[in-house]
Give the backbone structure.
Amino acid sequence: MTEPEETTEGRTVPGVNLAGTAAEAHGATAKTFTTREAVFALDKVTVSYNGQPAVADVSIEMYRHAITALIGPSGCGKSTLIRCLNRMNDLIPSASVDGQVLYHGEDIYAPKIDPVEVRKRIGMVFQKPNPFPKSIYDNIAFGPRILKMTKDLDERVERTLRHAALWDEVKDRLKENALGLSGGQQQRLCIARALAVEPDVILMDEPASALDPISTSRIEDLIHELKREYTIAIVTHNMQQAARVADMTAFFSVEVREDATGRHGVLVEYDRTTRIFTNPTDRRTEDYVTGRFG
Ligand code: ADP
Ligand code: MG
């Protein structure tokens, strides 16, 4: 971390030197990225199940047009945390969120906020591709139909499938059932389904972990492409993947509570990906990224 710097909005955030990030390596919008506009600002966020913290006291900012990776051992709360960025934990009755999650400066847990609108702006893709048992076309059209975005629907479907690098493979079979696609195609379809309602952010929870290496590489290429227009947070247990795709990486670990009531995840270190992988500050990060963990 370097000295705090002014953002374009005149707020002060902890400075992170973003030179040499994946953003630059891929010639993407490094200029936009280095303005460090925080799309998400989490302040002391704790997510609990039945009152027991699963991940505690997380404060982090995620930047516009950056890819932020969440890494760490199984059970450290990566899925729990990413789900609270679009109020997906609302759907789990035992889950509760403390602390503040600001999205473009707005508290997404404020009473006046409509969670459906939140999930429109902040889409999500899961580990296992989960297309609806409907046609390829109807999968993409599903969200737009619900949200009454049906003007020029055919064009929207085509544009979205092109965006997700799937159009050429499916353009002649739009009416066929999506479950007939390969796993990798299904996952790109699920990404396309998220894109169809024009989100701002895409959250991905281990989006390639069920896929073969070639499909994984296509998903990674797609993630890079999408970064030009979207802000992306990705959970991955694959460290090479984090190193390949992410500009910023947050490393989480599990801590045993002092009062012996259990264990919960904590954010250990957050920095440029290159720094996390080559010169981390915390011993726990170093042990993990060098494979000494466990
Ligand atoms: P990760 O994605 O890093 O593997 P999770 O967020 O899935 O971690 O889990 C963090 C902790 O929260 C674990 O102890 C897990 O058992 C618990 N947990 C996750 N989902 C639920 C749930 N729906 N109900 C109760 N406990 C849960
Ligand atoms: Mg998980």
User: Anything to note?
Assistant: Residues 213-226 form the longest helix (14 residues).
